[in-house]
Amino acid sequence: MVGRRVSAVGRVALVTRAPSRARAATLSAALMLLAGCASLDIQQEAAKSPAVTPVALEETLTPAQRKEHERLVASYGGAYDDPKLRQLIQDVVARLVAASERPDLRYRVTILNSPAINAFALPNGSLYVTRGLLALANDTAELASVLSHEMAHVIANHAAIREDQMKQAVLVSRVISDVVNDADLGALALAKSRMSLASFSRAQELEADAIGVGISARAGFDPYGAARFLTAMGKQANFRATAIGQSASADSADFLASHPATPERISIAIANAREYASPDKPGERDREQYLAAIDGMVYGDDPKEGFVRGQRFFHPKLGFTFTAPDGFTLENTSQAVLGATTTGREALRLDAVRVAADQSLAQYLSSGWIDGVEISSVESLVLNGFPAATAVARGDQWSFRMFAIRFGSDVYRLIFAARELTPELDASFRTAAATFRRVSIEEADKVKPLRIRVVEAGLADNVDKLAGKMEVPDRPLERFLLLNGIERNAKISYGEELKIVAD
C-alpha cells in the first residue's frame, strides 16, 4: 500500500491512517495487483575474505544494514529455519563462490518464509531465496542456476547500479512531497519507481544468465539447470495467470515478473550451457540430495501468516475467517487478500485500517476515501456480532460493494468490485461478507501447514494416482505436474522419487 506503514502482525496489512482522495484513483488497479517492493537502500560492504554465512547473518551487518535486512525479511513472512535446507544452500554457495570470477566476495544467504517464487541479491552480497522457489526447483543444479544468477548481478555490479537509481527515485519522491506538498503523491511516485526498478534491464538479465551458467558449470553442476528452471517458471506464470488473473501475475516483487521465462531466454540459456557441456554429459544434478533437503518443507501459505483453502481465507493468529463467493480464486499477499474470477470481471480485496473509535463505520464509508460513494446506499449493520457498515460506489468501469467491519482495535475492509454490479451479484457479495467471523482458539490450534512430501512411486502408480494424493485446495493435477517438472503423458518409473503436497 503506497504511503502507508504496514505492521508485522500478519499478511493482512494493518494501516495506520485512512487514504486520501488522491489515492482513490488507484483503487481498482490495487484490487488486482500484488503491491510491494523491498527497499534497496543498503550500502556495498567491502569483503575481507571469501565466506558463506547462511546463519547469523545479522552479525555481519552494520546497524543500518541490519535494520533494512529485518524489514525486508519481515515483508516476506520472516526467515524460514530448516537445518537441512540451510546446509544444502551453504554447500552450493560455497562451491559457486570458489568457481566464480570473484572468489573474494562474501555472500550471506537467507531463506524467506514465503510461498512467492523469488530470489534476489543486494549490493553487499546478501542473497535471499524464498521457499516457494525452492519448492518449484527439482534438483540442486536448478537451485545453483538461481543462486549463481543472483551472484552474477553482484559480480557485474548490477545491484549497485540499481541502488543508485533507487536513490534518485527517493530524491524525486521527496521533492514531490516537500515542494509540491503532497506526501501521498510523493509516496506513489516512489512506489512506481521501485516497481520499475525491481527488474534489471534485459541486457543485465542476459549478462547475469551467461555469467551464472558459467559459474554453475565450473562448480560441477549441470549447466542446463538454468533452462529447466526457466521452463518451470514459465509454466508457473501461466498457472498463476489462469488462477488469479493476469494482473495479479504482474506482481513486481515476484521472480516471475522480474525474470520472465521467454522462449528466447530459454534458448539463450541452452546455448550458454552448450559452451560448457553436451546434453548427454551435463554434469551433476543431485536430484536425490535436493529432494531429501526439501522433504517436509512448508508449502504455500504459512498458517501463522493466514492462508487460503479453496474459497476460504483463514487467519489463526488474527482470529478470523471468511469465504469468498463461488467462482473466486483467492491469493494471500503481503498487502492484502486478493481475489478474482477467471473472467476478470469480478474481484475482491480484504485489508485492514485504523479508524478512530469515535468515528462510526457509516461515517468512514462516506468520508471520501473512495470516489463515487452513493450516500443513499450507506447502511449500518451487524455481521456475526461485529459492528459493520456497507455502501456502494460506482466509477466509470467498475462498481464496488464495500464493507467495513470493526474487529477488535482494527477495521477490516472487504471490497468487492464488478464490471456490472447486478442485483444477483450484489446479493452474493453480501452473503460472502456475512461469512466473516471469529475463530476459536481450538479451531485455530487444529490448523496445520501443507508440506512438500517426497514419495517413491509404486508399481501401479501413474500421474493421475500420484496427483490424487495432493492435498491441495484446487487443481491437484496441474500442481503435481508443475512441482515435478513433468508433462501430462509422463511415464512414472517404479521407485522414482516425486513431490506431492500433504499435511
Sheet having the most strands = 8 strands, mixed
**Number of beta-strand segments:** 19
User: Any idea how many domains?
Assistant: 3
Give the mean pLDDT: 79
Would you tell me the structural class of the helices and strands? alpha+beta
Q: Which segments are poorly predicted (pLDDT under 50) over 5 or more consecutive residues?
A: 1-55, 164-198, 245-253
Count of helices?
17
Overall morphology? globular
Helix content estimate: 25-40%
**Strand residue content:** 15-25%
Using only C-alpha atoms, the radius of gyration works out to 24 Å
- What gap, in angstroms, lies between the N and C termini? 33 Å
Question: How does this structure look, described?
Answer:
By secondary structure, this protein is an alpha+beta fold. The chain has 3 domains: 33-299, no CATH class; 303-445, Protein Transport Mog1p, Chain A (3-Layer(aba) Sandwich); 450-502, Membrane-bound Lytic Murein Transglycosylase D, Chain A. It is built from 17 helices and 19 strands. It has helices at residues 27-32, 63-75, 83-99, 131-136, 140-155, 158-178, 183-197, 202-218, 225-244, 255-258, 263-274, 287-294, 361-365, 423-433, 441-445, 463-467, 476-484, and strands spanning 14-15, 51-52, 106-112, 119-121, 126-130, 298-299, 307-309, 312-315, 320-323, 328-332, 337-341, 346-353, 379-383, 386-394, 399-407, 410-418, 437-438, 450-456, 497-502. The strands form 4 sheets. Strands 1, 10, 11, 12, 13, 14, 15 and 16 form an 8-stranded mixed beta sheet that branches. The chain has a 4-stranded mixed beta sheet with strand order 2-3-5-4. A hairpin with a 4-residue loop joins strand 14 (386-394) and strand 15 (399-407). Helix 3 (83-99) packs across helix 5 (140-155) and helix 6 runs antiparallel to helix 7. It is globular.
